[in-house]
Automatic annotation (TrEMBL):
Coarse class of the protein's main subcellular location: secreted
Compartments in which it is found: Secreted, Cell wall
Single biological process term from Gene Ontology: cell wall organization
Gene Ontology MF: a single term: hydrolase activity
Annotated function: Hydrolyzes acetyl esters in homogalacturonan regions of pectin. In type I primary cell wall, galacturonic acid residues of pectin can be acetylated at the O-2 and O-3 positions. Decreasing the degree of acetylation of pectin gels in vitro alters their physical properties.
Protein's recorded name: Pectin acetylesterase
Protein family: Belongs to the pectinacetylesterase family.
UniProt source species: Brachypodium distachyon
Membrane spanning stretches: 26-49
Enzyme class at the top of the EC tree: hydrolase
Length: 441
C-alpha cells in the first residue's frame, strides 16, 4: 500500500461549500433559522464543470487517519492507439491495489467534470486536467467510496480501487479520427481512452476479478450508464458485476424559461464528438443529444445498476433547471445556490423537477436487481466524500447511510429502492450552500 501522506489539498480545490444540517425537528420553515452549521469543507470544482467531485483533506474525517494519496499512472502505449486526451497527451488513472480478501475485487470510479460543447470551450479545457494529463495532479486522495479505511468505507475498503481520469470532454464516448477541427488540433477519443484504460487494468488483474463494480459521479455517472454493459463484458462471466451512477441522472426537462437548455447542450456535445454512432439503439427521429440522457441510455442496460441521485441535484438545479442564460431577470440567483433562499414558487418548481426525476426512473424501479437511493437533499456527488458516503452525521434513509445502502444492494442483503419524501422532510441532509464564485461558462 502507498504510504500515508500529509500533503496539502490539490490546487484544483477552488470552491468552498458549507454544509448546513437541518435541525432534528426538520420540516418546519422555522427550523431553518435554527439550522446548525455542522461542517465545512472544500470540494473539487473543475473550472469548466462546476462539478464537485472529491473532497479534500480539510474534510472532516471519520476514519482516524488522513486519506491515502494514490499516484497517477499514465496509460502505456496510449498514443499508439490514438487513445489520448483532448490535447493529445496520454490519459491516466490512479490505482490503489486491494488487500486481504479484496485482492481479487475491483472498484472503478470514472471521474466527472461536465462536457465541452464547442471548440472554444474544448480549447480552454485542453489547458486543464479535464483535457490534458499535463495538468493532472500527480496524486489523488482516495475518500468516500474510494477510501481504504474500513470506518469510512465498510464494504469496499480492501478492494482494488481505480480512479479513471476524465480528459476527453464527452464521457469517454467520442471517437473521431480527424485531429484537426477548424485548423486546430483536437482529439475526441473518449471511447478509445475507455478501451485503453480497461485493457491496461485487465492485464493488472481486472481480468481475474471475482467481483467488480463500475462507479462514477456527475459526467462520470453518465459515463457509468454508458459503459456499464461494456464493463460487464470485459470481466469473467462467473463474477459478480454491478454499476453505480452517482449524481448522473441528467434530465431532459424544460428550464425555468421553458427552453430545453440541457438538450441543446447535449446536441452540441453529440455533434462535436459524433456521439450518435455510440447509441445505435437510439431512435432515429430523436435529436442526437436526446440519445445521451440516462433515461434513454439506461433502457438498454442489462447489468444491475444503482441510481444514487439527490432529488434536487445542485448541479442540475444550476445548469439544467435554472441556467444563467435562461434567468435573465436573475430571479434564481440566490435560490440556485442555497435551497433555503428559494421562495414558495421556486420550491414548487423544484418539486416539479423531483417529480420528473421520479417519473424518469420509475421504469427502473421495477427492475428487481436494480437499486436506488434518491434522497431529498440539495447536493451533488455523494459517494465521493466521507461525510455524505458514510459518517455518523451523513444523509440516511431507512436509518442507513449511503454506503450501507449500496453495500446492502451490492451483496444482496436486502432490496434497496429508497425514495425520500419531499424536501425539507429529511433532517439528515447536508444541503450545499454554494458560494457566488460558483459559476460556469
Ligand atoms: C461555447 O460554449 C460556451 C459554454 O458552454 C458558451 O458560453 C459559448 O457561447 C459557446 N460559443 C459558441 C461560439 O457557441
Amino acid at each position: 500500500m502507498p504510504p500515508l501522506s500529509t500533503a496539502s489539498a490539490p490546487a484544483t480545490h477552488q470552491l468552498r461549500l458549507w454544509w448546513r444540517r437541518l435541525g432534528r425537528r426538520g420540516a418546519a420553515g422555522a427550523a431553518f433559522g435554527a439550522a446548525l452549521l455542522a461542517a465545512a469543507f472544500f470540494l473539487t470544482l473543475s473550472r469548466y464543470a462546476s462539478v464537485p467531485s472529491t473532497s479534500s483533506s480539510t474534510s472532516p474525517s471519520y476514519g482516524h487517519r488522513l486519506p491515502t494519496l494514490v499516484d497517477l499512472t499514465l496509460v502505456d502505449g496510449a498514443k499508439d492507439k490514438g487513445a489520448v486526451c483532448l490535447d493529445g497527451t496520454p490519459p491516466g488513472y490512479h490505482w490503489l491495489p486491494g488487500f486481504g480478501d479484496g485482492s481479487d475485487k475491483w472498484l472503478l470510479h470514472l471521474e466527472g467534470g461536465s462536457w465541452c460543447r464547442n471548440l472554444t470551450w474544448c480549447a480552454q479545457r485542453k489547458k486543464t486536467s479535464l483535457g490534458s494529463s499535463a495538468y493532472m495532479e500527480r496524486r489523488a486522495e482516495f475518500v468516500g467510496i474510494l477510501s481504504d479505511d474500513e470506518l469510512q468505507n465498510p464494504d469496499f475498503y480492501n478492494w482494488n480501487k481505480v480512479k479513471v481520469r476524465y480528459c476527453d470532454g464527452a464521457s469517454f464516448s467520442g471517437n473521431v479520427e480527424e485531429e484537426l477541427q477548424d485548423g486546430t488540433s483536437f482529439f475526441f477519443r473518449g471511447q478509445r481512452i475507455w478501451e485503453a484504460v480497461m485493457s491496461e487494468l485487465l492485464s493488472k488483474g481486472l481480468s481475474r476479478a471475482k467481483e467488480a463494480f463500475l462507479t462514477g459521479c456527475s459526467a462520470g455517472g453518465l459515463s457509468t450508464y454508458i459503459h456499464c454493459d461494456d464493463f460487464r463484458a470485459l470481466v469473467p462471466k462467473a463474477s459478480t458485476v454491478k454499476c453505480l451512477a452517482d449524481g448522473g441522472f441528467f434530465l431532459d426537462v424544460e428550464d425555468v424559461s421553458g427552453r430545453r437548455y440541457m438538450r441543446g447542450f447535449y446536441n452540441d456535445v453529440a455533434r462535436l464528438q459524433d456521439l450518435r454512432k455510440k447509441f445505435p439503439r437510439c431512435s432515429s427521429n430523436m435529436e442526437p443529444g436526446q440519445c445521451i440522457f440516462p433515461r434513454e441510455v439506461a433502457k438498454g442496460i442489462s447489468t444491475p445498476m444503482f441510481i444514487l441521485n439527490p432529488a434536487y441535484d445542485v448541479w442540475q438545479v444550476e445548469h439544467v433547471l435554472s441556467p444563467e442564460g435562461s434567468d435573465t431577470e436573475r430571479l434564481w440567483e440566490s435560490c440556485r445556490l442555497d435551497i433555503t433562499k428559494c421562495d414558495s414558487k421556486q420550491l414548487e418548481t423544484l418539486q416539479g423537477f423531483r417529480k420528473e426525476l421520479l417519473d424518469a426512473i420509475s421504469e427502473y424501479k421495477k427492475r428487481k436487481d436494480w437499486g436506488m437511493f434518491i434522497n431529498s437533499c440539495f447536493i451533488h456527488c455523494q459517494s465521493m466524500n466521507a461525510l455524505t458516503w458514510h459518517s455518523p452525521s451523513g444523509p440516511r434513509m431507512n436509518g442507513k447511510t449511503i454506503a450501507e445502502s449500496v453495500g446492502d444492494w451490492f451483496f444482496n442483503r436486502r432490496e434497496v429502492k429508497e425514495i425520500d419524501c419531499e424536501y425539507p422532510c429529511n433532517p439528515t441532509c447536508h444541503n450545499a450552500i454554494l458560494s457566488q464564485a460558483y459559476k460556469e461558462e
